[in-house]
Amino acid sequence: MSESPDGGGPVTGPWWWRRRRSAALDVTLAVVAAVECAFGAYDTVHTRLHMGGVVACLAAVLGALAGATLVVRRRWPVVPMVVALVLVPGLFGVVPLVVSLYTLAATWEWPSRRGRVVALSALALAESFGMALLAMLAPVSTPAEVHLPPTWVFVVLAGLVAVGLTVPPVVTGLYVGARRRLVESLKDRAHGLEAELGLLAEQASERARRARLEERTRIAREMHDVVAHRVSLMVVHAGALERIVAKDPEKAQASARLMGEVGRQALEELREILGVLRMAEPVAAVAAPDSLGELPSLVEQSRAAGMAVTLTVSGERRRYRGEAERTAFRVVQEGLTNAHKHAGGAAVVVLLAFVPNGVRVAVVNDCPGGAAGAALPGGGNGLVGMRERVVALGGSFAAGPEPDGGFRVEAVLPSRLAVQADRLV
Questions:
Q1: What's 209's DSSP letter?
Q2: Which residues contact 405 (CB under 8 A, 6 or more apart)?
Q3: CB 92 within 8 A of CB 128
Q4: Which residue from 20, 321, 335, 351 lies 20 to 30 Å from 280 (Cα-Cα)?
Q5: Which of 355, 243, 353 is nearest to 305 (CA)?
Q6: Cα distance between residue 166 and residue 159, in whole Å
Q7: Closest CA to 78 of 101, 48, 55
Q8: Domain map of the chain by residue range?
């Protein structure tokens, strides 16, 4: 099915017209062509063939039906074209010829069907030339003193008539069809761009949603790192303070003083996090002094809380990037927090090893046995957050029970995160 010449695109309206004015135009052209063909057929049969009135009337009816085929020119453009080629040798059918040539050139795909359009147009040109030449050379009674022009004059005039009847409608139809296809291609491209922009908008929205989720996750990790360890130490000290306040007031006073110091540190870090949340511009991470050099003080805080913890350092000390040292510090902090929560009274070993392929930190606690106190509440998110931190930096993380009943938290950060001593020039 060909495209409609009045607007392009698939036909969706009744019959084969997209708009009412298109139907009105085709009906009007069909009526005009029917009248022209009816009079032409009647004149040919009655005047030139000298046949009776009944035959002439029948010819007029057939001519009218032939001219009326223009009504289907949008659906089947070749039908009125073939009818016009049949009528032209009878010296009538000019309206169907001109309109069908235009419709044929405008609606048929170009250049995929160039051969058919050229062949039918050439045939129409030849028939138009023959019709015009025959009409000019037809014998007529003229006075003797009137001299007719030479035959070549009639040939030239017939050629001009044939060209005038066929070339303008074909060229106009080709131009209109090409312009319509260009408009349709631009519309398709615009629809494609609109769909692509919609997809890009959806992708941008999804990226924004993921960025918000990642930011919330990062903030949650920072809050957990700040609160979990400090509050766990405060709870442990509070329990010890309750037990020794009557027996050893000096030790109880030291524990209370340490609780205050731990609480102040937690408040300072919370203020830093809240300050970042109030900033108009986002920052990559909370500025914190946590580093591998502060592991002894971290271990000392746990030792002051009653934990039997030792720190073992091996290898040649190397400085690592800020985010790497903070991550290693947080891994040790989370391991000590877990030991406070789930292995009260157990011996704990903190390992810090500078190895050729990076830096390795581990927190290993023995089986708590029967000396453990009341377990502290935990949500199980600390180890997940640590794994996310370490993996994001390209390291490896492991956490799980030991064969003897203890528990190990271990992380290895790659050596590429180390700060180069000599910069490349």
A1: H
A2: 366, 367
A3: no
A4: 321
A5: 243
A6: 11
A7: 101
A8: 20-139+148-199, 290-420
